[in-house]
Amino acid sequence: MESVLAALLVRANDVVSTDQLCGEIWGEEPPRRATATLHVYISQLRKQLKPASRGTASPIVTRFPGYVLELGDNSLDADIFQRLVQQARTAVRTGRHAEASTLCEQALSLWRGTVLGELRGGAIVDEFATWAEETRLECVEMRNEADLALGRHRELVGPLYSLATRHPLIEAFHRQLMLALYRSGRRAEALQAYHNVRAVLDRELGIAPCRQLHHLHNHILTDAGDGAVVPAAA
Fold it and tell me: pTM of the prediction?
């Protein structure tokens, strides 16, 4: 039943077909009475989502070829998150770094652990979870870039070490860590961070670091001393 509700929430205000909902629950091998069982789940959900006022219709509406969860003007956290991220992208493009950092922080504050908990396996939920996680990481990267532009390199070192460890194949986080270390006067550690990511990329994928990482490494080696490195978002 949780899978049905998750799929309806992800596609809120859009029709989700009976076949799609059955796929969310049972995958490619639904039981013989799958449709009847789905009707039972929908009935139970309607009871649990009973409107506060009498005479108000259930938010789960039957509409060919399936069902739709009508939220009206009520926004999900995912919708608010998406709006904040889009506003942050605009702020980044126009160089409004403080605003971008604040917007990203507001967007990330909406997160409460793993997307949709342990619900996985259905196409609708899996696609949404992938989008949400990728967008979250983009938001983290944008916030870091904005904070680096605002001179907050020292306070970023710790979080960036953690990000580079948790996401060893995301080169942007390694680049940001190198830059934060370099601007904090920790040149040797910045160079070591480059050697670490180079080793990981070679071991896991058999590739060399990207152009931005290579250029930053060369900049640190020459030690210009001004820390004036073009951000990866540019």
Answer: 0.87
